[in-house]
Design a protein that fits this description.
By secondary structure, this protein is an alpha+beta fold. The chain has one domain. The chain is built from 1 helix and 2 strands, in the order H-E-E. It has a two-stranded antiparallel sheet. It is rod-shaped. The two termini are about 60 Å apart. The mean pLDDT is about 80.
Length: about 80
């Protein structure tokens, strides 16, 4: 918190008031800008999450060869284009 010095003259009080008012409005503007920045970053994150979900929905697990005696089973992921 900012310490407010005691002022005695009328002109000094007016100047101090104007300075405090300016600081208050600057703080309000900074809060508004910070909220806009946070909202845009959240929107970008949501878009990236949606793209990742779409990419994972487009893959399907397919067994290439049926298991045979003495061989390991192979699993391949294939991306399906729409």
């Amino acid at each position: 918190m900012i310490a407010i010095p005691h002022v005695s003259s009328s002109a000094a009080k007016k100047k101090q008031f104007q300075m405090m008012r300016k600081m208050h409005y600057n703080e309000g503007l900074n809060i508004k800008l910070a909220r806009q920045l946070i909202a845009s970053e959240l929107e970008e994150d949501e878009d990236a999450d949606e793209e990742m979900r779409e990419d994972t929905e487009e893959t399907e697990e397919i067994n290439v060869d049926p298991p045979q005696e003495g061989k390991k089973r192979e699993t391949v992921c294939v991306r399906l284009d729409k």
